[in-house]
Amino acid sequence: MKVLSKKEGGFYNNRILFGSVFVLMAILLMVFVYAIEGVTVSLDKPINTYNSSSLTVYFNCSPIASLNPVNVTNVTLWHNFSGTYAANETSSSATTLNGTNVSFTKTIAADGIYVWNCVACERNATNGSVCNSSTSNYTLTADATAPSIKTVRLLTSLTKKGSSQNVTVNVTDVTSGVATVTVDGVTLTQEGTGDTYSSSLVNISASPITVTVTDHAGNTATNGTVTITFDNTAPTTTYANDSDIDSDVWYGKDLLLHLSAIDTGGSVANTTEYRNGTSGTWSTWSANLTFKSNLSSNTFQFRSNDSLGNVEAYQSRTIKIDQTAPVVNIVSMSATEIGPSQTIAVSANMTDTLSGLNVSLLTAWHNGTGGNNGTNQVTLALQNGRYVGTITGPSSAGSYIVTVNATDRAVYSRNSNTATTAFTVMNLTAPTITSNVSNNTYITNGSVIGFTVVGANNTYYNTSETTAYSAPQSVTTSTTLAVTVTMNTSTSIEIQVHANKTDSNTTTKSYTYLVDDVIPPIAFSGLTANQVINGTTKIIAVSSDAGSGTAYVDFYDGSASGELSLRKRDNSTPFTYERDTLILGDGNFTLNITAVDHAGNVNSTMIHVTVNNSRPQTQAVTDGTADFGGTGIYDMVPQITGLNSTNAVVTVAKGDSPFISGSTDLGSPEMYINISADTAATARVYFRIPTTQITLADTTNLIVYMDHDDDGAYEQRESVTYVNSVGGYYNFYFATTSFSIFAIVVEASSPNTGSGGGGSGGGGGSSVTKRSIAFTTSGVSVGLKVDDKALFVFNKLTQTVMPTKISGDTATFKVMPSGEVVELTKGQSKDIDLDGDGVSDMNLKLDYVSGTTKAFAIIKKAYASKKAPSTAFEIIDVIKDFYGGSTTYTAFELIDIIRAFYGGT
Fold first, then answer.
1. 660, 636 Cβ separation under 8 angstroms
2. Following DSSP, what letter does each residue of 856-905 receive, concatenated?
């Protein structure tokens, strides 16, 4: 009886199996009907649908016979272990097996689901042999293979110890099927009918976790390699600020705080929180935070948490911010009216509810002399609940302000506040009276004289013409009393001014003035109307006032149809003005002279003149040699002679003056001019250079070099004056100081330098030249080569100035007999003490340097450096020295010393 199909891959074809079972059950049903009167069998072990984790299975069945006599002869075990349902093993007995447990031990070759049954046979005399089985086959599952754990998934491998965690496990068992899945004793729930089981693990505290899977046969599989990282460490918050905050210090500025969190437990710092104070809601920190005002309870708390919910125990910082100024009130002052330099006691209330008052910076001062927080500042001290101090008032009368200042203890930016009140310093001295016109001076009838009265309450005046005092004029601090002089017949007037104060201090002063109502006479001398003038014309004005005297004469001129301009004011006779007419150009001009006497009377006169400079006043140019005692200098040097008038003018054009060849200590002069020895020292030489020869910029760099002593070396250097540009020529002039050969040179930033010696007449070579110069206050310019000597007399001794080195723009001079060595750069000067008395006697200036050839020095007296006397006895000593004492002075020096004694310059 075959009821099972062949096993395929460890599993049986269910369709064939169920068909076989159906046939078997039909046969057994027939047997059962037949055997109702025969034998029955009970299947005892294993139970139906038993799952066995072993392939060795123990079977047990019991036959029970119902016929008499009872004679069960054998029991046969049927199964399909080999793939075919068939009798497998029979247990027989010579005696009856009725009611006996018949056992079979069978080893199954492979896991699978199998069926089995027992057939018992009975033999008796009546019915013969009767066999029967259990009413239905039992199912047996043999499963000796453990389940398979395919995957174990955690929501995260990083969590807090003691937290909950969801776990998902995927498992399979192909034979008996999965019975239970547990993780560390927690049973997981199957999701639907699949292979996935999941659950939430509560209070996870160990790692790794163990997954245990049990199938229905009792086979188990475990996985203990799934690890969990526990992070129960809260982040650490770092606190920083823009300065080291001291919890005991109040700060008078904004504080910028920075918070940052670091998590070393493996998770990520999630949120940083803070709050002002020790309670209340926590706020999320999002950026740097600036605190501008005092914090609640002066406490700042902060903490951080991570993504797992670990929360840091809060940290605290004490922060004290005080940006509120103290409150200041002046309660009282001992007086609001005081005398000069008297004291005032000041009392003030001061409070500061935050950082408190800085007792060293509680001060008071006034805005008088030394005021505004200056020398009169005092520190206030606490007495009987108030801050008090004593201030010394100003020495001058007036209204002033007392300022009281309070500063708190906040650092970096102290908070201060002030309060003010006024007080008055009363003038206890007598009034002062001054006049804007000096006593005993000339005035005109109708003049208004101003008297300034200071420190009076009332003032009066009278005159010798009106003896009664005027009505009192009220005065507050100071006023100007205007008195108009009204004369009848007298030539002088006395004005008396009286001023008094409410404190009985009075002042009376008298002034006498001389009255001059006559205008001063004024006239031109040596100049008539419509006269033709040219060159430099000296205009002379004659004015002699018999009254107060002529104070000054003003010289005006201008075009005949234009406005006159003031050219000069001359306040000493003879009143003169030299007019350079070349500047004006030819044409008709107006001259005006105005005389003003010491009383202020004015008189003027005016004439018209014609300017004509088309021909020079004097021009004598000849070719030849210079008239220096017959000594020849240059060939073809134009020579000017006969200029023996101090007012002479000569005009020379470059075309009249040929270039001179030959070596000199200059570069390339534009022109030379030779003026003979009979020329006056103060003649003015005009010369012209074609505009095609030099540029307009060169006109400011034109220099005249002077050779006074016929040695071919130029010892003096002066600037020239540019006049104008007319008819294709640039026009210039310079003043002579002696007869000379003059070289006109265009210089740039420094003089042109030659290549060596001084030309055909010597100079510039190796010979040493001595030059005697006048030692004057105006100074002398002298050109010196190395070892040349400039000689002058001081204190009856011959003094020597000698250059020892010339290089670039620098020269070194030695002064004898003092032995002083002076190094100067171009334009630099130095005062030198010649006699060792500690007072400078000479000023030495390096004017310029001509290459390495010559240094031009200006030597003059340094009388201005003589010490002015400070007492009358010292000035007497100076005068004694002037008249034969040990110190030598000139008359000019004596005048300057006396002027300095009286405050002059």
1. yes
2. EEEEEE-GGGSPPP-SHHHHHHHHHHHTTSSS---HHHHHHHHHHHTT--
Q: Which helix (H) or strand (E) holds 646?
A: none
Dist. CA 3–CA 138, nearest whole Å: 13
* Amino acid sitting at position 739: F
Residue position matching structure tokens 């020079």:
616
Please give the biggest Cα pair distance in the chain: 205
Please provide residue 35's backbone torsions phi and psi, each rounded to the nearest 5 degrees: -95, 10
CA-based nearest residue to 111, from 251, 11, 194, 187:
11
| pLDDT one-digit tens code per residue, 501-510 | 766 678 889 9
User: Which pLDDT score, from 0 to 100, does residue 888 have?
Assistant: 63
User: pLDDT per residue over 425-475, tens digit each?
Assistant: 876 778 888 998 888 888 888 888 988 888 787 888 888 777 667 777 666
Strand-pair category, 343-351 with 386-392: antiparallel
Query: Both ends of the chain: CA-CA distance in Å?
Result: 157
CA dist., res. 356 & res. 628, Å (int): 96
The sign of the dihedral angle between the CA atoms of 107, 109, 112, 118 is: negative
- What is the spatial distance between Cα 848 and Cα 867, in angstroms, rounded to a whole number? 30
**β-bridge mates for residue 200, sequence order:** 166
Q: What is the amino acid identity at position 676?
A: S
Amino acid residing at 45: K
Q: Which of 177, 223, 227 is nearest to 206 (CA)?
A: 227
**DSSP letter assigned to residue 408:** B
As a residue count, the chain comes to 905
Angstrom distance (rounded) from CA 744 to CA 671:
5
Neighbours of 361 (CB within 10 A): 15
State the pLDDT at residue 148: 92
Question: Quick one: which of 139, 146, 147, 120 has its CA closest to 65?
Answer: 120
